[in-house]
Design goal:
It holds the Pfam family DegV. It is built from ten helices and 13 strands. By secondary structure, the protein is α/β, with parallel strands linked by helices. The chain has two domains: about 160 residues, Rossmann fold (3-Layer(aba) Sandwich); about 120 residues, Hypothetical Protein Tm841, Chain: A,domain 3 (2-Layer Sandwich). The strands form three sheets. Strands 10-9-8-13-11-12 form a six-stranded mixed β-sheet. A four-stranded parallel β-sheet has the order 2-1-6-7, with helices on both faces. It has a three-stranded antiparallel β-sheet with strand order 4-3-5, covered by helices on one side. It is globular and about 65 Å long. It starts with a strand and ends with a strand.
């Protein structure tokens, strides 16, 4: 089975994966004041962060159109297409990807091309960033092992349901101002340098713990993640950072102190995660 893995642009691919034709990102649009930026391969993280710092308005994002997903399905040179989107609680990407699948299938049926129709699975990651990448790598491994579309789909959804996502940010203000905390108050103890450890409950953001200082918060995040993960010997951890590789490496080393993983992958955020995680933010998925 040939396959293609498509994500919205919060699927924070590694540099190596960006060069691999099996992967494709459908860009969201980023808005900072009156400036609109397409979150594609031209995204310049450092320039974007500078723009955000200079703008009094909170940055925003807009999801891709269904047509953009549909065109990607049509163009995919593969038997099977696996689509991984941001949590439906955080973005409209999921709905657009599902609608695109429906439109693609209807059009193929109208043209009498059912036999040529690609198999498509659209997965709400119930996560973002590292979680989407973790899921993409899991699907890749299954496809490379020769499993059928149905087997990959079943295992991928089960893996999604077992996966946990955590993050520690310098500030929750962007998430709060854009309504992504679903009523959860942004942490206010900035003056005390208290950093919350955040997690996900079926795609909704929740607070798990807190610590004074970013390093202690990251260590606490690793404690929680390893305890929750149980036996990690066959598991992959994915760490995404926003413009702070040293902090991501610190998390990797802290995880290695606590457990043995099959692999720990570090990646840098594209535009969407940069908007919401802000400069220095860390997102972990296991």
């Amino acid at each position: 089975m040939t396959y293609k893995i498509i994500g919205d642009s919060c699927l924070d691919l590694t540099e190596e994966m960006k060069q691999d034709e099996r992967y494709q990102m459908i860009p969201l649009t980023l808005q900072v004041g009156s400036v609109q930026i397409v979150d594609d391969e031209t995204f310049d993280q450092k320039a974007f962060l500078k723009l955000v710092r200079a703008c009094p308005e909170c940055p925003k994002t807009a999801c891709p159109s269904p047509e953009m997903f549909k065109e990607a399905y049509e163009a995919a040179d593969a038997d099977a297409v696996f689509v991984i989107t941001l949590s439906g609680h955080l973005s409209g990407s999921q709905n657009c990807a599902v609608l695109a699948k429906k439109l693609y299938q209807e059009e193929m049926a109208e043209r009498g091309l059912e036999e040529n129709m690609k198999k498509i699975l659209v997965i709400d990651s119930l996560s973002a960033s590292s979680g989407q990448l973790n899921l993409a790598m899991f699907i890749r491994d299954l496809c490379e092992a020769g499993l059928s579309f149905e087997e990959v789909s079943k295992k991928a959804l089960a893996y999604r349901d077992e996966m946990e996502t955590y993050f520690v940010l310098e500030s929750l203000d962007t998430l709060r101002k854009n309504g992504r905390l679903s009523g959860l108050q942004a942490f206010f103890a900035t003056a005390l340098n208290i950093k919350p450890v955040m997690g996900s409950d079926k795609g909704r953001i929740i607070k798990l713990d807190q610590a004074r200082g970013i390093s202690k918060a990251l260590q606490k995040m690793c404690d929680i993640a390893v305890k929750k993960a149980g036996d990690t010997s066959g598991k992959r951890a994915v760490v995404c950072h926003v413009n702070h590789f040293e902090r991501a490496r610190f998390v990797k080393e802290e995880l290695e102190k606590r457990a043995a993983f099959k692999e720990i992958v570090i990646t840098n955020a594209a535009g969407v995660a940069t908007v919401y995680a802000n400069d220095g933010g860390i997102v972990l998925a296991i």
